[in-house]
Specification:
Helix content of chain B: 55-70%
Structural class of chain A: alpha/beta
Strand order of the largest sheet of chain A: 2-1-3-12
Mean pLDDT of chain B: 87
Helix content of chain A: 40-55%
Shape of chain A: globular
Oligomer: heterodimer
CATH architecture of the largest domain in chain A: 3-Layer(aba) Sandwich
CATH superfamily of one domain in chain B: MetI-like
Number of helices of chain A: 16
Number of strands of chain B: 0
Strand content of chain A: 5-15%
Low-confidence stretches of chain A: 1-8, 15-33
Distance between the termini of chain B: 31 Å
Distance between the termini of chain A: 43 Å
Number of helices of chain B: 14
Number of strands of chain A: 12
Chain lengths: 419, 317
């Protein structure tokens, strides 16, 4: 052991000496001297519609900067933030990177160059800005809107003897519908995947406007959250109760949300699912499987004094990481919200785009229903949370399902995590 | 014809084949620097340089980085703050507890590999076939194995369907706190024991046949042969397998954890390696570096303790 201790002590000494100099990399990246190139990281540009949109963005950008070479690096999404974090720390990060709005962008705000003034001229043109703002600064422009609509399968409703054209509007009606589906069919009421703990964030944001009063909702988004309040605890209680009441497919904690639980819904093994409005698991993908049987419903009223709102906000947008290329970066961001490019993608890719003046040209009724609810929509409750709290919520969401933590304990842990 | 040698006599005369023997101290003579004395060092120099540049230097950088802050404190020296934060972090505490669970599974893998290697060594019928079959999972990617066992162990999977058909209760193996990590570890053992088996077989090939013959002549039965001849004879191999299996379990479970449980439910199947990945993904790379240093220390300490303990345990008293 002595042979080991001496070199280790020397090594630690050297490390502490190194530390005194500060060892971390700067956040400014790229080769500032090379103004003729812009390195952009993103994910999910592999399908035809996304590739066509990317080409359209590139064309819009090159109209302004014909001599700038844009190098687009498409990374796998499940590794994206890990790769990006490592690259930034190593000083080899891109000039611009795609970010999810909300928690993912806000927790990295210190690494992104604020572009509040630079984007001021397009502010009125788009919806969904709050997901890209932090501390009074704007960090990106939303390309698409992301929300958590509840979809249902009209054929299963009909099989259970429920009215497929009139989905539940209150919690009691929803509970009755789930009881009926359980007794009259052999499918589960809701498709749920909670292996990554995502289920509870879908539940909270999906049903939140029917639980919290509008004042509580707005305060929550503004950062004034009381996890031990009656309605916050009610969210946790309803989550645990619905599982205990058998609303979900077996083994939710070992089922992945993407794509297993959505496959359950697409395949007709569940009557309802809280899905997404853009990107994946949305109306266009579900329509491919369910066609005319796909229905969209608003959150249901749980408490009196609530105002139902479609939970939706800015989905994704590019952030500028290289201080020396802000001008090019801003023009790239503006190209990503180019009206023509977005209009084409909204039809081909099944996106609800941030430019709400673009008419969604589709005959898929649920998409039109979602668009119709946009004016009264509200930001998502879970993306207002910090990364630590959101991760804790994921883990508590799993523990509530298996009965390992009480609602009171979960609420106090969440309250403590937010200081 | 020589008289038959007793097992004990042979073992005692050569207590642990391959162990470095202590030699009486002799005064050192100063070596002259000649091409013959320098050449060996020159030959290993490229490897040493590669180790220094690609292993030691990044390691030191990582340790250095662990003493700096994240986000707004990026690059700022924060002393042991990251380490103190980790000690109070629920996920880190769960990871540390789970390391102990992993340690319980190490002897199982060694035992399984050792026993099956012994059966192959004594040439049970079909031993060549079994040798290939046992090794096959080693060549599969952990992601593929994870995907397969996700289905097999699923709440609605074939294993539960079989249990249900014979009236046994069904279990959501990967979604329950008590079963998640043991399920992953069992799959890991299935997937990796083939490598330990090959090492055991290599060890068997160095075993002194004279000892085995002597044991047979002395009338030792199979368990006695294993206990008094094979285990002492394979002491170094067993140590090696123990240490490499431990390191493999602590640093090679990420793929399975990622695909099978994602660390859950709660933090029930978190291991340090998974935590490091999660922290880095949460934009806290310096904290992840501190967790990496902890993992390095855990592996070092456990490895050294194992070598000490096993050195004694596998010696014939």
């Amino acid at each position: 052991m002595k042979r080991f201790v001496a070199p280790f002590a020397i090594g630690m000494g050297a490390v502490l000496a190194l530390s005194a100099c500060g060892g971390a990399a700067t956040t400014t990246t790229g080769d500032s001297a090379d103004d003729g190139k812009l390195v952009v990281w993103n994910w999910g540009s592999s399908d035809d519609a996304a590739a066509a949109y990317q080409d359209a963005v590139l064309a819009a950008f090159n109209e302004k900067h014909p001599d700038v070479e844009v190098e687009i690096v498409s990374q796998p999404f499940d590794q994206y933030y890990t790769l990006l974090g490592s690259a930034i720390e190593a000083g080899t990060g891109p000039d611009l990177a795609l970010f999810n709005g909300g928690t993912q962008l806000k927790s990295r705000a210190d690494q992104i160059v604020p572009v509040t003034d630079e984007l001021a001229d397009i502010k009125d043109q788009l919806a969904g800005w709050p997901a890209f703002e932090d501390g009074g600064e704007t960090y990106s422009a939303p390309m698409f809107l992301q929300g958590f609509p509840v979809y249902y399968n009209k054929a299963i409703f009909a099989e259970a003897g429920l009215d497929p054209e009139n989905p539940p509007t209150t919690w009691d009606e929803l509970s009755d519908a789930c009881d009926t589906i359980a007794s009259e069919t052999d499918v589960s009421c809701f498709a749920l995947g909670n292996k990554e703990g995502l289920g509870i964030e879908f539940f909270m944001s999906g049903f939140g406007s029917g639980i919290f009063t509008p004042e509580e909702y707005d305060a929550w988004i503004d950062g004034e959250r009381d996890w031990e309040s009656e309605h916050a605890k009610q969210v946790l209680q309803l989550w645990a109760d619905t599982s205990a009441d058998g609303w979900y497919n077996d083994g939710a904690n070992s089922t992945a949300m993407f794509n297993d639980s959505f496959d359950l819904f697409s395949g007709g093994s569940a009557a309802m699912v809280i899905g997404l409005s853009s990107g994946i698991a949305h109306w266009k993908q579900f329509d491919d499987f369910l066609g005319e049987d796909l229905g969209f419903m608003m959150p249901v009223t749980v408490n009196d004094g609530t105002t139902l709102a479609l939970p939706i906000e800015g989905g994704i947008g590019y952030g500028v990481l290289n201080q020396d290329k802000v001008e090019l970066g801003v023009d790239w961001i503006k190209a990503t919200v180019d009206r023509d490019a977005l209009a084409d993608y909204s039809i081909a890719g099944g996106q609800i785009v941030s430019d709400t003046t673009i008419e969604l040209e589709t005959d898929i009724q649920s998409a039109q229903d979602i668009v119709a609810e946009l004016p009264g929509s509200k930001p998502l409750l879970h993306t207002a949370l910090g990364g630590d709290t959101l991760d804790l919520l994921h883990r508590l969401g799993q523990q509530l399902l298996v009965g390992e933590v009480t609602v009171d304990d979960a609420a106090s842990q969440l309250a403590a995590s937010e200081g | 014809m020589t008289a038959p040698t007793s097992t004990r006599a042979v073992v005692l005369s050569d207590p642990s084949p391959g162990w470095p023997r202590r030699t009486p101290k002799v005064p050192r003579r100063k070596r002259k620097i000649t091409s013959e004395t320098v050449t060996p060092y020159l030959l290993v120099l490229p490897v040493l340089l590669i180790l220094l540049v690609f292993r030691i230097y990044p390691l030191l950088l990582g340790i250095n980085f662990s003493f700096t802050g994240d986000q707004e404190l990026n690059g700022v020296f924060v002393g042991f703050d990251n380490y103190l934060f980790l000690l109070q972090d629920e996920r880190f505490q769960a990871s540390a507890r789970n390391v102990l669970v992993v340690m319980l599974f190490v002897p199982i893998e060694v035992l399984v590999a050792g026993l099956l290697a012994t059966f192959i060594f004594i040439k049970v019928p079909g031993h060549r076939f079994y040798r290939s079959v046992y090794f096959l999972p080693v060549v599969l990617s952990p992601i593929i194995i994870g995907a397969i066992f996700n289905i097999v162990l699923g709440a609605n999977g074939p294993l539960n369907a079989m249990a249900d058909s014979v009236g046994l209760p069904t279990v959501d193996y990967l979604g329950q706190t008590m079963t998640a990590l043991p399920s992953v570890l069992t799959v890991h053992i299935w997937a990796t024991f083939g490598m330990a088996l090959v090492i055991f077989l290599a060890g068997f090939s160095t075993l002194d046949q004279q000892l085995l013959d002597a044991a047979k002549i002395d009338g030792a039965n199979f368990p006695q042969t294993i206990w008094h001849v094979i285990i002492p004879g394979l002491s170094q191999t067993i140590q090696f397998v123990f240490v490499t299996t431990t390191i493999g379990m602590l640093t090679g479970l990420f793929g399975l954890l990622y695909t099978m449980t994602a660390g859950g439910p709660g933090a029930a199947s978190y291991l340090p390696e998974f935590l490091i990945w999660k922290l880095n993904g949460e934009a806290r790379p310096a904290l992840a570096s501190a967790a990496s240093v902890f993992l390095l220390l855990i592996v070092l300490v456990i490895g050294l303790i194992q070598i000490r303990v096993l050195r004694r345990a596998t010696k014939e008293s």
